[in-house]
Amino acid sequence: MSIPSVKITSFKSTLTQERTYSTNGDSNFPYIRITEEFSTNLFLTFREGGTTKSGERVANEAVFETPDYPVIGIALFASRYQQARLLSLLNNRIVEDGEYAGGPAYVISGYVEKPVNMKITQIYSKADYLLLEQSISSDKAPLNVSKIMAVRSSRQDAVWPYESIMYESWSQVGLVSKVDLNISATRRNSGSDSDFKRVILPQGTLVSDKRFGFSVSYFWGIDHLADSEIAKMATDPDYRTNRYYLKYRHLTAINQKSTFLPNSIRRAIIICALASTALLPVLLILWRKKNASKI
Amino acid sequence: MRQKFEIVFTRYLQAMGNLVRSFIYSAGCLLLATAIAKFISASGSASILHSPDPILSIKSRYVLCFLGAIEFAIGLICAFSKRQWLQAGLIAWLATNFLLYRLGLEWIGHRKPCSCLGNLTDALHISSQTADVAMKIILAYLLIGSYTSLLWLWCQRKSTAAPATM
């Protein structure tokens, strides 16, 4: 299969935010939707989770979309209900009975709970590529090992050794051919340094799989917050929104090598073909008029 | 014997004429229906409408509106015009463009079901896969029907023009 080119190098810095409320009208439960347009029209929609007044736990979720990859990724940290809801977001890739229709897709996934577990498994088995959340271990998901492109990490440093072990074990069994953990300095925009003292690992993971002739570099930003910041986020949705905005700005690059003609050239050829077919009636009319005038 | 043949031939011509007429009317109805579906979808707020079309790189909403307008116009021509050449020609032209577009989608590796009906499929509780298959069947119907009609019209014109030129 040819791999369409996807290269994300920068953000357009356009951010649209929608704030609505949960369907049960619970105004304490913010529904924050952030859509960011990346340089290659990658759309990210993030939904902030929380607990509703009725006590239902609602999880975070994020969906990435591009024209090339209708579903570039999903993040699940979800309750059963939310997983089902997130799956419904992917309904254009999932047929009526909940089965994933297949096709190019990245899936980022976290905790998977029954009974939607089966559906998630279907996604795993049918997606072409997977980006995995760290909390998915090989024993949890019956994965087609050749599909793993990258591993995302966002856990605190305490969990890090476990993850490293997991990556190592994956390397050993041939899941990934190279594991490269990028640990970079803490980034921040404002506020005092003390707020970020606990930010030890702005996680980023690069996994290259040379077997398929492509590499993916994937960097995920900071999501380890100081207690004060967590407290602020819990009470101030605006602050929370901004934090997530900052967080996702750190997703810097997903690069892939195209195997044949780049999609931009293919598109140009297709557009030319479409334009010439579209103009055919005009040419026909002109030709007939010319012939008629000759007669 | 010759009289019999002429009767059969006339009946055949009448049947073909009826078929072409039926095809044009049905194609017109289909185009009007899909045009309305496109307009409804384009007026929605689905996220897909903000994303660019995979080939044209124009916002999907605009593409839906534009195509809806063209389909609507051709649908009206099919319903009210008497010029079968024009009707069949326009259907063939539109279907050819759709075919090219779909081939283009395949070529760039876009495997998502075509969003011809936008988010209307959600409202109708039809999976986009089903809608995609239905649109493919409609496309095949339009293509085969229109080119067959054109061929028949061309043959008919030739057969009627032949004695006049002699």
Task: Write structural notes for this entry.
- The complex is a heterodimer of chains A (295) and B (166).
- Chain A is α+β, with helices and mostly antiparallel strands and 295 residues long.
- Chain A is 29% helix and 23% strand.
- The longest helix of chain A has 32 residues, at 263-294.
- Chain A is globular.
- Chain B has five helices and no strands.
- Chain B has helices at 2-42, 60-80, 84-107, 120-123, 128-165.
- Chain B is elongated.
- Chain B starts with a helix and ends with a helix.
- The model of chain B has no long low-confidence stretch (mean pLDDT 81).
- Classes of the chains: A alpha+beta (295), B mainly alpha (166).
- Chains A and B meet through helix 6 of A and helix 3 and helix 5 of B.
* CA distance, first residue to last residue of chain A: 55 Å
The Rg value of chain A, from CA coordinates, equals 23 Å
The amount of helix of chain A comes to 25-40%
The overall pLDDT of chain B, averaged over residues, is 81
Structural class by helix and strand composition of chain B: mainly alpha
Q: Tell me, briefly, the overall form of chain A.
A: globular
The low-pLDDT segments of chain B are: none
* Fraction of residues in β-strands of chain B: under 5%
Number of helices of chain A: 6
| Low-pLDDT windows of residues of chain A | 1-50, 57-259
Give structural attributes:
heterodimer; A: about 300 residues; alpha+beta; 5-stranded antiparallel sheet; 3-stranded antiparallel sheet; disordered N terminus; B: about 170 residues; mainly alpha; about 75% helix
What is shown here, in short?
The complex is a heterodimer of chains A (295) and B (166). Chain A has helices at residues 80-89, 117-126, 160-172, 227-235, 237-249, 263-294, and strands at residues 7-8, 11-21, 30-38, 43-47, 50-51, 57-58, 61-65, 73-76, 130-132, 148-151, 178-183, 203-209, 214-219, 254-255.
